[in-house]
Each structure stands twice: as C-alpha cells, then as structure tokens.
Amino acid sequence: MNKIEKTTVCIIGAGPSGTATSIQLSKLKIPHYIIDKSNFPRDKTCGDGLILYAYKAMKILGDDLFASFLKHPKFIHSKKITLHLNNRSKIEFKETDDRDMIISYAKRIDFDQFLVSHLSETYANQHFGSGVKEIRDEAEGVFIKLKNGKEILSKFVVGADGAKSIVASKLANNKIDKKHASTFVSAYFKDVIDLPIGNAAEVRMIYKKMLLFFYVFPLSDGQVNISLGGRADHIKKYGVNLVDEIQNIIKNHKKVKNKFKNATKIGNWRGWSIPFHFGNHKITGERFLLVGDAAGLANAFYKEGIGTGMMSGIIAAKNIERCLNKDGFSEASLKKYDEDLQKEFGRLLKFSHYALRAAKYKGFFLAMAGLLKKKIEQKVHRIIKKRSY
Ligand SMILES: Cc1cc2nc3c(=O)[nH]c(=O)nc-3n(C[C@H](O)[C@H](O)[C@H](O)COP(=O)(O)OP(=O)(O)OC[C@H]3O[C@@H](n4cnc5c(N)ncnc54)[C@H](O)[C@@H]3O)c2cc1C
Question: Taking every annotated instance into account, which residue ranges of this chain make up the domain FAD-binding (predicted)?
C-alpha cells in the first residue's frame, strides 16, 4: 500500500500561474508541493505573446528573473502592436521612447521551462510527469491521487491546472462555460515574408458570420505563430470551422496572403480554449483557491492570460501566507483573495467584456473606434503604465 505524503500547500499545475504561485510562496519561505502531469520542457497551445501583467509579475517575482527574461536568447521584444479593425482602419499601440517594449514573444515550450527553472530547490517539492486523477475534500485535508498511484494529503490546494481544471470541477463544482470562453486554433509557420518592421504584432478583427480575431506573432527562430478564434458559444452556434477559416485567411485575405505565399506550416493545427469567466464562477472555497485559466482570468478582448495568471499566483501566495499564519483556510477567510483579485483585475476585465460585446456590432464598433481613436490610445497608455513593468 502507498504511504500518503503530507504537505501544507499543494499547487496543481506548473504553467505560468502555478509557477508564479510557487516562486512567490518560496520568497515567503513557505514549503509546498507543485505537481504537473507533464515533464518540462512541455509545449502548450498559445499565441506566445507576453504583455502587461507578464512583465509586472516577473518584476515582482524578482529583478533577477526579469533580467534573465530580458536577455534570454529565445525571447524577442517589440515596441508596437497594430490592431487592424478592417482592411482600411487600424489602431497602433506604440511604446514610448523611454520604455523598451510593449509586447514580447516566447514559445511556451521555452517560457514555461524558463519559469520552471526558477522554482526553488528548497521550498518547492516538484512532482512532474503524472497528473491528478482523483481529488476530494476529506476531514484532515484535501486528498490527491496521481495517475502513478502517489497519494498526497494537503491542508490547502491551489488549482493552477488551466482551462479544464480538475480542481475547479471537483472542488468548486464549476462547469465549462462556453459563454465566457474563446476557442482558438494556432500553428507555427516558417518562411513567412514581409512581416512588419520591428517585430510589431499584427492583430486583425475579421468579421465573418461572427467576429474572429487573427494574430500573427513573430518568433526568435524566424518562425511565426498564427492563431484565430472567437467566442466559443458563437463558434458552436454558427458552426464555424476555425481551421478552414484560418487556412482561407492565409490563402485569400488581401492583406495577409502575400506573406504566406511561400510559407510552410510546422506541425499540426492545435486548438484550445481561453476562459474569461472571472466574476461568474466560484474561485475559492474551504481549503482551495483557483488561479489563472482555472479561475477564468484571461482578458476577454485581447486574450492576455499568461500575465493575469501569473499575477493571480502572486496574489494567491500572499493570501496563503496570511491564512497560514493567522486566519486559517476557511471559505470565509479566503474571500479576501476574491476581493484582492477584484481590486487588481475587476475593472480591466469588465471593460474587456464590454469591448468584446460592443465589437460584435461591426458598424457601431468601427464608428466608435474611429471617433474615439485618440482616447483609446490614451487609455491603453494608462493601462500600460499601471499594469506593466
Ligand atoms: C491559441 C491560444 C492563444 C493564446 N495566446 C495567448 C497570448 O498570446 N498571450 C497570453 O497571455 N495568453 C494567451 N493565451 C492564453 C494562455 O495560454 C493561458 O491563459 C495561460 O496558459 C494560462 O496559464 P495557466 O498557468 O493558468 O494554465 P496553463 O498554461 O494551461 O497550465 C496548466 C498546467 O496544468 C497542468 N495540468 C492540467 N491538468 C492537470 C492535472 N489533472 N494534473 C496535473 N497537472 C495538470 C498542465 O500540464 C499545465 O502545465 C492563448 C490561449 C490559446 C488557446
């Protein structure tokens, strides 16, 4: 029979949200387990773009971590993002001269490995390569069983296991919520030509039966990450086949097709979901809290989920310290985590929901965007100053 291992805190998932939680807990000298079903380096379907909170979170986690991010040979940076509203109008978001970047690009296989390599040898007990198969609340703690048979009893659990979180489904009883999620497909291409100068990000709003977002992000190895997606419930309602749509865009879209005329796809199309249900689902309860995608913290409009996830991990770790030293892990004492997340993200994420809803109405949105262009650029600058490095 297996001997049950005991720990005070167990993080499930070692993506950006789980690793940020772990690094912050280690800074607070709190020993913990961190579990992931994969061994690292491992890939994750993503656009590979890092903005806003990713910088802020890395700076909080440590100046040395941020410095090694900046000089990492596989990560590149840019001062410009262009949002194409249609073939004629666009909004440009440029970083000011005194700041280095507005967006960085890092393949997730490299970025997540970079974060994992910063986990503490002293405080983070790492269990990678076997996923959580069972999890339940018991009298003495949360019982966790891994696929390899290992059994763990933890006083407290952090659900950092992404969009299809087992912690969210078993402990919080949350269901997959297609109304508050996007579905995206993505793939890498080589030999893409005529990319914008200075590694600028290209984002296009494409109106078909529904609104779709198309992203072209350059990478350090000369490849390009392209992705396409939109609201999950609309994709289902209108029967949109994202792979057909994105292939059609790179073949026929008059502003895109030339770039891809000699390009070759590397690997397969991959699809995954981006949840933005924060505020609509339970994210804390007796002996657990959720971070990142498990908590539905992605930005509904521009899909930042890495940075918000990392920032939620930092906020989670500070709350765990408080609960451990003072208040206990009851549902009531964990409410403070909900409040702290609301304070940090509430307004921004609500604004992103409004923007996504408004963007559905093409004529209205284009007219408003044209009219308010200067104001939007100013607002984005304020967001960057407040929520970035
Ligand atoms: C196509 C696409 C493009 C995107 N582009 C961007 C972008 O450019 N920028 C951006 O900021 N965000 C982007 N996102 C969103 C971003 O990928 C997520 O928001 C981010 O990965 C969330 O981080 P996380 O740590 O919460 O979850 P994840 O990165 O999903 O990490 C969860 C971890 O938990 C592990 N896990 C899962 N289940 C178990 C289990 N049962 N037991 C143990 N371990 C488990 C997984 O192996 C994984 O390592 C994109 C998403 C998609 C789908």
Answer: 6-340
Q: What is the pLDDT of residue 68?
A: 97
Say how many Å lie between the CA of residue 89 and the centre of ligand 1. 32
Within 6 A (CB) of ligand 1 lie 12-18, 35-38, 44-49, 131-132, 160-162, 166, 184, 186, 227, 272, 274, 292-293, 298, 303-307, 309
Rounded to an integer, what distance in angstroms lies between the CA atom of residue 268 and that of residue 250?
16
Total of domains in the chain: 1
Residues of the chain with pLDDT under 70: 1-2
Please check whether residue 238 lies inside any domain of the structure.
Answer: no
pLDDT of residue 98: 82
At 80 the pLDDT is 95
Tell me how far apart the 2 most distant CA atoms of the chain are, in Å.
69
286 Cβ neighbours under 8 A, 6+ residues apart: 137, 329, 330, 331
Provide CB contacts within 8 A for 103, sequence distance 6+.
49, 50, 51, 77, 78, 80, 81, 201
What tokens were used for 128?
């990678």
Q: Is residue 214 part of a domain?
A: no
Tokens at 354, concatenated: 């409004």
CATH code of the domain covering residue 97: 3.50.50.60
* The pLDDT of residue 380: 84
